[in-house]
Amino acid sequence: MPAWLLSSMALALLLSAAAWRAERTLQRRGRTTRWLWLAAIAASVLLPLAWLPGVLAAMPATQSQLKLGWFVLSVGMLLLLALRSVWLLSHQRRWQKTSLLGTPVLLSGGIGPCVAGLLRPRIVMPVWLSLIPPRQQALLLAHEQCRLAGRDPLLLAMAHAWIVLMPWNLPLWWQLHRLRFAIEVDCDARMLAQGHALRDYAIVLRRHGQYYSGLTGASPIVLSDPLTLRRRRRIMGRFTRDQAANLL
Q1: For the chain, how far is it from start to end, CA to CA, in angstroms?
Q2: Are the C-beta atoms of 232 and 205 separated by less than 8 Å?
Q3: Which candidate in 21, 81, 116, 179 could, as Cys together with 37 as Cys, close a disulfide (CB 3.0–4.6 Å)?
Q4: How far apart are CA 31 and CA 247, in angstroms?
């Protein structure tokens, strides 16, 4: 079984490299890349599982602790995801239903801007939003509407479901990181396709990106890291409006 574990991680690493190269090509053409990384995650899990039954049948009894460790890791990750869901539901009871610029939103004490929920996702806005200019409020709201249109919570839930099956496979976590970044880039392109000015949108990301929640799609590291924000702006600079419209 140790050989199978190493082979599974090696395969995931190769698929990661292939997806990374394909991502650069697709970005230059103004194409969405989120499905590329989701496919890489799924393939990294499904292909090794195809020959797992034979591996388990031939596994010596002395290696049974490997199966136990795998089970513990998967169950632990499931529990963490469940606890996060319970925590989110407990906060939702205190959120106020309101309207922002004609759009129904949930008003939270400090969580957001983000999209919360899986089956019925809703836009969540923090109370401090009233302290920033209306133009920036509109940009943040439009950004979250792009998240709803892109079904970001569902996409990330699918990715986590695959990783739960192999939480020990480290390249899978890097693929998840790249998926999160791809979601942000795709959302940026959607914003540009709707006619929002790059300069205004970049200012909002720089000033308020650190407040985004990692609950349902936005990684705090991906959003608040200055180097990553600069990279996103460089990618946005390559999109023409017609190219960005391909994502709508």
Answers
A1: 45
A2: yes
A3: 179
A4: 7
Structure tokens at 129: 């939003």
Please give the average per-residue pLDDT across 168-186, as a whole number: 92
- pLDDT single digits (tens) 26-72: 877 767 889 999 999 999 999 998 888 776 666 776 677 878 888 89
Is the whole model's pTM more than 0.90, yes or no? Answer: no
Nearest to 217 by CA among 168, 169, 152: 152
Structure token digits, residue 132: 């920033």
Could you tell me which residues come within 8 angstroms of residue 160 by beta carbon, excluding any fewer than 6 positions away? 81, 176
Nearest to 243 by CA among 34, 29, 33: 29
Contact 140, 113 (CB under 8 A): yes
Beta bridge partners of 98: 105
Distance CA 125, CA 111 (A): 7
Residue with tokens 């899978």: 172
Residues 6+ apart with CB under 8 A from 209: 223, 224, 229
The whole-angstrom separation of Cα 146 and Cα 142 is 6
